[in-house]
Amino acid sequence: xxxxxxxxxxxxxxxxxxxxxxxxxxxxxxxxxxxxxxxxxxxxxxxxxxxxxxxxxxxxxxxxxxxxxxxxxxxxxxxxxxxxxxxxxxxxxxxxxxxxxxxxxxxxxxxxxxxxxxxxxxxxxxxxxxxxxxxxxxxxxxxxxxxxxxxxxxxxxxxxxxxxxxxxxxxxxxxxxxxxxxxxxxxxxxxxxxxxxxxxxxxxxxxxxxxxxxxxxxxxxxxxxxxxxxxxxxxxxxxxxxxxxxxxxxxxxxxxxxxxxxxxxxxxxxxxxxxxxxxxxxxxxxxxxxxxxxxxxxxxxxxxxxxxxxxxxxxxxxxxxxxxxxxxxxxxxxxxxxxxxxxxxxxxxxxxxxxxxxxxxxxx
Amino acid sequence: xxxxxxxxxxxxxxxxxxxxxxxxxxxxxxxxxxxxxxxxxxxxxxxxxxxxxxxxxxxxxx
Lengths: 364, 62
Fold this sequence. Notes:
Chain A is an alpha+beta fold. Chain A has 14 helices and 11 strands.
């Protein structure tokens, strides 16, 4: 039933074809992407760049990158190279150079790759952060990169809320998920899990971008370079601090290629309807497909291979905690089949995985 | 977390004491880089037992 979910997988990155990438694909990339026209007007701006520059793409798109958004780039080293590249037609293999972005909140060492879209006069800046440091007091204030509050003042009067990294958020009650679930049950009772899982995968990929930025800012390390303990704490904190519940990572079955994640007080499970059998016992509902998808997208991004997470026990179905099993993407069908047959709980699912023949494909 | 318009504490800056969020792995294992740790997990499942494999799987495994 869930085979269609997680069907969208990012293709391997090739800068020559970046113009063909949809915005959601650019948002899953672990480096900044800024698309400019030949005058330097911002046409596209991905999530990673938005996170590090602390600027909302809705605010910067349509503005001139050099004059309005990043005055620190008005140098021969940056804007001069861009102008020469454009004047030359932007053909060839592109340009690479290092630069230091200066923001009010700090400076960022970056490696820039400049390339031209194959079929249109659009130019892409690929921005790899290599090190983040504090503000440089000696840097001229008038050349600092723009701030969100300056480019878009008084946003709160227009119903826009932002956190301290200038990310827009919506302060939504958990009952919103109860309402969403009720709508799903009414309109798509057989397929809403597909939607929720894929939504979660997309969320997980974006969460990985967010956490990658946090890791670099705090320790100059990528997520994969953090210790496993630090990574687990970071991922758990991401969910915990946003009110999704308290996750615990259990590596006890990793020799079987199985990672278990328990989630206490899941917001989704607690918002889900409680349905009872005729004998008064809970029906074995699974309500947290969105979180399962998030684990799939997030852990796949970090592990560098496709993984699939499935909820196998849920508070909404009477379990004390929500439990998820993470396996290689190729093994997810075993779990899905077991769930369809009514199997619930980590141990029965592990048993089903042990019984399943290992596919020839996975041995190659 | 309550929010006042236009301002909210940044979740990433908060470090609440949440205790351990891991179990089932040794301290030494958890100290390893996450990339190495995750790469060492046999995600495709444990190695097959050659005594119980069917023919095609056994040939592929060879």
